[in-house]
Amino acid sequence: MSAPAIDPVRTPVPSAAVRKAAEPRRATPARFDTALGWSDRPSAAWALRILLCAIALGIFAAPFLTIVSGAFSTHASGSSLSFLPRDSTMLNFRVAGERGIWDYFTNSLVIAGGALLLQLAVSVLAAYALARHRFCGQALILTLFMLTMMLPEEVIAIPLSLVLGHVPVVGLDLKGTAWGVILPLGAWGFSVMLLTEFMKDIPTEIEEAARLDGVGEFRMLWQIVLPLCKPALGVAGVLGFVMIWDQYLLPLIAAKDPTDYTVTVALSILRTDPEVGSGVVLAGALIALVPSLIVYLLLQRSLVTGIAAGATKG
Amino acid sequence: MTATVTAPGARRIRVFGKKAVLPWVFLAPGLLLALVFKFVPMAKGIWLSFFDVRPFLGDKWVGLDNYTRVLTDHRFQDAIGHTLLLGIGMSLGGIVVGFALALLLEGQARSLKIVRTAVFLPVVTATAVVGEMWRLLYYPTSDGLINQGLGFLGLGPTPFLDNPDTALWATMVMSVWMLAPYNMVIILAGLAGVDRTLYEAAAMDGVSLWQRLRHVTLPAIRPALGIVLTLAAIRGLRVFTEVYVLTGGGPAGSTEVWMTRAYTLGFTRNDIGGASAASVVLLCVTLLLTVTVNHFRKRGDAR
């Protein structure tokens, strides 16, 4: 099989780079480094590449500038939108604040924090069992977790809203609480799979030595296996955050009234409010954008690695 | 006699018991959450799809009525068309644009890494934020940003989202915009695995750039493309948030997709049975698609 044979979790650098580092003086000219054979010396093709890069930036990144400029300008009404603000003001943020944007933002942070912690804890425990133990029904459990990954949340939204209103057996009503969003996000097949694959590769010798010293299972997980999993935890954490922050339908159906909304869902409230202009909506959008931006810029490598990992693992 | 037989047996059972229980302790939280919030709702959805759900009167068994009602409803039939068009359009568009981006931005130079970082932004941004942004980019008068661009080209302002003829295409463009950088990352990982000496050998044989792409690069990244296509197709079928925040299904139902229709049926019109039936249909199609694609991929790999 000609699949890219990189293990993206352990070797975050693409394998081409690894190969180049391993044999630095291999006489492959730079023009064979890329599929299109881009040269790095000034030439017509080089100029074309810069032009195309500029266009790509213009299409994929520049639109974000409209959010920033619109959020800080006094009369941003879609019609007077531009990439750069003409005058800067905090008025939009004040109005958005009066409309409760910070409350929604707090909801979002509570949900994101809680769900991420729960997701990581659940995944680590499950992955530890799946990777380091042998028991009957293992293949079935693995398939079940894989199913949770393939089961689109949208498809179960309607019955899920009924379950949230009356959790079976215990009969709790989770609607209108943060738990209503946090708990359904707890079991995410992707991070279970990712951590299982990673834990499988940890050598068993360390564990066996510790076991001979009489280390118990939970201490083993907490003090020996978990510290070794830090890179995979970073990947699972950043992908989990992006996934949780992007949730739209779940907070919508788990809410009892609009004050329970997350900041992303609340943007539609700002938009349909006839008294505020698009400047205020964009201020809200900017507030909703900043956390994902921070997480992305800090943990960019983990994120890209994780997406490639999901891809190579299928 | 019996004692000597049972004693080791009992010990084995006890040891086996402790060893066997432990993994389940670790698995319990995950399984419990998956059971309550994934599998119970799924079972409940399938169950309710056969009932006329009446909150205070009790549910009434109606057999396949919900399914026939949903599948013969012309608004749902329109939604199937929109979903397929949107799904196929965004999958293919996402692959073509993602592949082009990957070819353009492949390389180790620092400047390329910065460009890649910036281009990847749409993927990490929440769909709702992207939707609000594009609503303004698509602003219908000649002052809207995209319409200003069209103005430079001498084209009149288009009310992208307010015109039933263009709204679905506008939604597709936004979806491609969100999907392409994601595909770019997967394809880049595939490109990194291509053997560089093959490029060199191809150059020595005097092979044209196009032939090199066609016969060296493309076969090498075929697995990556397969994954990208599967993910995109499934995402296309269940598309909800993109449409919900950008157009809400309008104007005149021209962007109504399967899930927005089911949502309206379930939450606005309180027809839980019909909405469940619609969800079950989508679930079956998704599962069928996943299984089929996996089957073909396995066969393709074996070859």
Automatic annotation (TrEMBL), chain A:
It is found in: Cell membrane. Keywords: Cell membrane, Membrane, Transmembrane, Transmembrane helix, Transport. It is a multi-pass membrane protein. The keyword DNA-binding does not apply. The chain crosses the membrane at residues 46-72, 109-130, 142-164, 176-199, 220-245, 280-299. InterPro entries: MetI-like, MetI-like_sf. GO terms for biological process: transmembrane transport. Residues 105-299 form the ABC transmembrane type-1 domain. Gene3D superfamilies: MetI-like (1.10.3720.10). SUPFAM superfamilies: MetI-like (SSF161098). One of its GO terms (cellular component) is plasma membrane. This is Sugar ABC transporter permease. It comes from Streptomyces resistomycificus.
Automatic annotation (TrEMBL), chain B:
It is found in: Cell membrane. GO terms for cellular component: plasma membrane. Pfam families: BPD_transp_1. InterPro entries: ABC_transporter_permease (IPR051393), MetI-like (IPR000515), MetI-like_sf (IPR035906). The keyword Transmembrane helix applies. Keywords: Cell membrane, Membrane, Transmembrane, Transmembrane helix, Transport. The keyword Cytoplasm does not apply. Residues 80-293 form the ABC transmembrane type-1 domain. Signal peptide: none annotated. It is a multi-pass membrane protein. Gene3D superfamilies: MetI-like. The chain crosses the membrane at residues 21-40, 84-105, 117-137, 167-194, 215-234, 272-293. GO terms for biological process: transmembrane transport. It comes from the Bacteria. Belongs to the binding-protein-dependent transport system permease family. This is Sugar ABC transporter permease. It comes from Streptomyces resistomycificus.
